[in-house]
Amino acid sequence: MNISGCEISVNSQVSIVKMAGFRVQALYDFAGEPGTAELSITAGEVLTVTRQNVGEGWWEGVNQAGQTGLFPAAYVQEVKGSQPPAMPPPPLPEAFTDPVQEVNTEDTWGSQGDHQQQPLSSQQSYEGGDYWDDEWDDDSEGGGTQTSQTNNSAYASGQVIPKSGSVGDVSTIGKSDGKGTVGRKNFNRFTTFVKSGGESYILGTVKVAVREEDKVHIYESEKGVVWNPITEPYVCMVASPKKESKLKGLKSFIAYQLTPSFNNIQVSRRYKHFDWLHERLEEKFSLVPIPPLPDKQISGRYEEQFIEHRRAQLQAFVNSVCRHPVLSRCEVWQHFLTCTDEKRWKAGKRKAEKDELVGANFFITLQAPERPQNITDLEQETEKCSKFIHEMDGAIKILMATAVDQTKKHQGPYKREYQRIGHAFSALGLAFREDDSPESARQNLMEAVRVTGNTYHEIGKLFEEQPKLDWEPLADVLHLYKGIISSFPDILTVHKGSLQKRRECEKLAADHKMESSQLSDVVRRTDVISYALLAEINHFHSERAIDFRLAMQNYLKEQISFYQKIVAKLQDALGKYD
Amino acid sequence: MNISGCEISVNSQVSIVKMAGFRVQALYDFAGEPGTAELSITAGEVLTVTRQNVGEGWWEGVNQAGQTGLFPAAYVQEVKGSQPPAMPPPPLPEAFTDPVQEVNTEDTWGSQGDHQQQPLSSQQSYEGGDYWDDEWDDDSEGGGTQTSQTNNSAYASGQVIPKSGSVGDVSTIGKSDGKGTVGRKNFNRFTTFVKSGGESYILGTVKVAVREEDKVHIYESEKGVVWNPITEPYVCMVASPKKESKLKGLKSFIAYQLTPSFNNIQVSRRYKHFDWLHERLEEKFSLVPIPPLPDKQISGRYEEQFIEHRRAQLQAFVNSVCRHPVLSRCEVWQHFLTCTDEKRWKAGKRKAEKDELVGANFFITLQAPERPQNITDLEQETEKCSKFIHEMDGAIKILMATAVDQTKKHQGPYKREYQRIGHAFSALGLAFREDDSPESARQNLMEAVRVTGNTYHEIGKLFEEQPKLDWEPLADVLHLYKGIISSFPDILTVHKGSLQKRRECEKLAADHKMESSQLSDVVRRTDVISYALLAEINHFHSERAIDFRLAMQNYLKEQISFYQKIVAKLQDALGKYD
Question: What positions does the entry give for a 1,2-diacyl-sn-glycero-3-phospho-(1D-myo-inositol-4,5-bisphosphate) binding (chains A, B) (predicted)?
Answer without folding.
Answer: 270, 272, 310
